[in-house]
Amino acid sequence: MTISLGMLMLGNARAEDAFWNALTGGKFDFSARYRFEHVDDDLAPGGVPLKDAKASTIRTTLGYKTGKFFDFDARLLIQDVRAVGLDDFNDATGRPNAKTQYAVVADPSDTDFIEGYLGFSGIPNTYVKAGRQIITYRDAPHHRYMGTVLWRQNWQNHDAISFTNTSLPDTTINYAYSWYVNRIFTDESAGAANSANVANFDSDSHFINIKYAGLPFGQLEGYVYLLDFENSLANSVATYGLRLNGGIPLTDTIKGIYTAEYAKQDDYGDNPASVDEDYILGELGAVFKLAGPVESVMLKFSYEQLSGNGTSSFQTPLATGHAFQGWTDRFLVTPANGIEDYYLTAVVSAFGAKFIAEYHDINSDNRSYNFGRELDLLLTKTFYKHYTLGLKYGAYDADKNAFNAVGPTAADVSKFWGWVEVKF
After folding, report:
1. What are the pLDDT digits (tens) for 125-151?
2. Which helix H or strand E contains 314, and what residues bound it?
3. Average pLDDT over residues 331-352
4. Contact (CB, 8 A) for 199 and 229
């Protein structure tokens, strides 16, 4: 009896020690990003020209992930976004203080948890997360379907349960069920149901993404995204797609790169529209490895089509839309006549910095008219692994023709950003 009691007490003490070690033996992370954004937008809602926006904002995050306790761990990440100094901008929430006389900078002030989940790794080659989490299946900036909208100061996240399994050779299988999507407009958004800036999506959605990296020439990816939003019916769509991308060495210093992708989209859930649209992406380019201060140069031509028939069009409501069709964000929602985007990208790594230039010629899929052209430029430099400085510029020049006479796509806009970021 005495020995059994002693063993029980010893076992409890060890369990308590293990729990305490897991709780205190984790890892903190911290980030801060200050950014200035200037927007000159020719859009004139109701015939009244918008004033130039000047936004001075800072985003800070503090996170902690515990160690493991009987195959369980936990993660918390809190985010705070504030205007500091200049706040002459429309934060896109529709709140009384949204300052709608100014151009939009969609960075409303807010404090919230963007991650808060319990993880479990007790199943072989599997990790399960339950709770608030970030869901992406591709590295930025390729968040075409599932993204965080990470360019904005507030990040999109999900209340969900997700599974990642790597049991099969060279294969990663992802599944998630999302019951709530926390969008960048914050809980305080005045956006009504089915509006573009509705605060959050009441979701009953399933995501499947499977990647196979065993090919000698690239990675194969298949996906099914079943989006069902009770308060955003037009965005309730089912998307089925296949993607192949990779690189082929041409010489010791030159590598050819390519992407081929196709997806089909149908209406889903209670979407009242009849959606039958297609997505096509084709990319071809090369990476040149150089000696000296210019380390590498990447040149790439891309063609991207999101089809539209004048009534419905291919939509990606959970994407990081800023990365596509130009950085001025004129095409975050696909127009009814769809999009055909022909664009060139150049990336130069030199002197420890990165320079990116993009040029877009954006047209409609249906009726084949021109929306406009956009030039985008980016320069970033990281110091001592933790500190980054950045400058960024985008200018959209609208083609004002008979088919593109009104609305955002018919108005010129230019944007400038400067920022400093710290990560630990």
Report:
1. 999 999 999 999 999 999 999 999 999
2. none
3. 98
4. no
* Mean pLDDT over the full length of the chain: 95
- Residue 294: predicted pLDDT: 96
In our burial notation (b when 16+ CB lie closer than 10 A, e otherwise), range 30-43 reads ebebbbbbbbebeb
Find residue 90's DSSP bridge partners.
104
What is the SS3 assignment for 326? coil
Phi, psi of 60, deg, nearest 5: -125, 145
Buried b (16+ CB within 10 A) or exposed e, 268-285: bbebeeebebbbbbebeb
Read off the amino acid at residue 33: R
Closest CA to 112 of 177, 172, 180: 180
- Tokens 């019951």, residue? 179
Q: Is the pLDDT of residue 113 over 80?
A: yes
User: What are phi and psi for residue 140, nearest 5 degrees?
Assistant: -65, 145
Q: Distance between CA 134 and CA 165 in Å, rounded?
A: 17
Q: Which domains does the chain have, with CATH numbers?
A: 2-423 (2.40.160.10)
- Are 340 and 315 spatial neighbours (Cβ–Cβ below 8 Å)? no
**Would you state the pLDDT for residue 308?**
98
Length of the chain measured in residues: 424
What are the angstrom distances between the C-alpha of 278 and each of 259, 269, 313? Answer: 17, 19, 9
Structure confidence at residue 263 (pLDDT): 99
Token reading at 183: 């969008």
Q: Is the pLDDT of residue 14 over 80?
A: no
Distance between CA atoms of 329 and 320, rounded to whole angstroms? Answer: 10
Amino acid identity at 133: Q
The pLDDT of residue 265 is 99
Q: Which amino acid is at 121?
A: S
User: Could you read off the pLDDT of 245-261 as tens digits, one per residue?
Assistant: 999 999 999 999 999 99
CA 113 to chain centre: 18
C-alpha dihedral, 294 to 295 to 301 to 303, nearest 10°: -130
The pLDDT, as a whole number, for residue 249 is: 97
DSSP string, 97-112: TS-TTBPB-----EEE
What does pTM read for this prediction? 0.93
As a whole number of angstroms, the distance between CA 31 and CA 281 comes to: 34
Alpha carbons 217 and 372: distance in angstroms, whole number: 35
